[in-house]
Amino acid sequence: MLRVIFLGTGGTLPTPDRNPSAIFINREGEMMLFDCGEGTQRQMMRAKTGMKLGSIFITHFHADHFLGIPGLIQTMSFNGREEPLDIYGPVWTRQFVNLLIQLGYYKLGFVINAHELEDGDTIDKGDYSIKAVGSDHGIPSLGYVLEEKKRVGRFNREKAIELGVPVGRLFSKLQNGEPVIINGKTILPSQVVGESRPGRKIVYSGDTRPCKNIEKESAGADLLIHDSTLAEELKDWALETKHSTSKEAAQLAKNAMVKQLILTHISSRYSEKRELLIRDAKSVFENVRLAEELMEVEIPLSDT
Ligand SMILES: [Zn+2]
Ligand SMILES: [Zn+2]
Fold it and tell me: Which entry of 35, 64, 207, 280 is annotated as an active-site residue?
């Protein structure tokens, strides 16, 4: 299972209908959060995600992307959490975590490990990885790429039986890439196991101007979640504040040939004019939609 839950989809300021940035990902039961704007823990409660987060990835230190962390960790501590929590982010993450653990009079019941990342740093999580990608927001800022490793190819059961392999242990041997010998004849895994299949890839841009680095890393992604603070009518303002318009996000999605684009970090000025953002984006890239609060998106495995 690879599920994305949008907990906060608004621009810089919280509004009655959008919280500041936070994206929750559940991959096979492993929970992680990308950005944690204020109010994120209440959104987690609404979405019934539970609090068993392993890691938080911060894109940059603008308040709308991290102010939810102090309250969240105090609640976790209050709930008796003992497992360590990893907080990843650009330069200043260590200082931030030091401040966090000195804030107020409470004593944390668990350890927070701070990890500062730079463009290109990759965290290997076994069957998937998370890569930090430098973005363009005027301050140290990162996007993140969650990418699964290739999966073994499909096992051709009928073919194996036809070749005389008895059902059972030898099947898994072949599946694990080991040859087996049947009646003096060697059967190779390549005879019964298909081409390896791609894993899934999700990219989150964080706040950024459209940037080549993010575009390159988004190539063929199953899902790109991109800054879309403004519509094309306010492109000058996007340039000045180092954000993207929905059309620019769509152009990047098209260039990178992603399968699906979800626009987020939506400015409050579009709460009544959401169709403006969508119209601009659709003029360039068809498979696009606006992120909504508590929206859930499941990314299926593909067979090719
Ligand atoms: Zn922001
Ligand atoms: Zn920002």
Answer: 64
Ligand 2 centroid to residue 58 C-alpha, Å:
11
Q: How far is the CA of 60 from the centre of ligand 2 (A)?
A: 7
Q: What's the residue count for the chain?
A: 304
- Catalytic residue check, 64: yes
Q: Which ligand is nearest to the CA of 137?
A: 2
Give the distance (Å) from ligand 2 centre to CA of residue 197.
36
Summarize pLDDT for 82-133 with one digit per residue, the tens.
999 999 999 999 999 999 999 888 789 999 999 999 999 999 999 999 999 9
32 C-alpha to ligand 1 centroid (Å): 19
How are the residues of the chain apportioned to helix, strand and coil, as percentages rounded to the nearest 5? 30, 30, 45
Query: Mind listing the pLDDT tens digit for each residue in 123-166?
Result: 999 999 999 999 999 999 999 999 999 988 999 999 999 999 99
Kind and range of the H or E run holding 97: helix 93-102
> For residue 61, which ligand has an atom nearest its CA?
2
CA of 243 to the centre of ligand 2 (A): 8
Quick one: which ligand is closest to 38's CA?
A: 1
Q: How far is CA 82 from its chain centroid? A: 25
pLDDT band at 302 (very low <50, low <70, confident <90, very high): confident
- Beta-ladder partners of 97: none
Residue 61 φ/ψ, nearest 5 degrees: -95, 55
298-301: Cβ within 8 A, 24+ apart? 298/1, 298/2, 298/3, 298/4, 299/2, 299/3, 299/4, 299/200, 299/202, 299/222, 299/223, 301/151, 301/197, 301/200
Measured over the CA atoms of residue 70, residue 75, residue 80 and residue 81, the dihedral's sign is negative
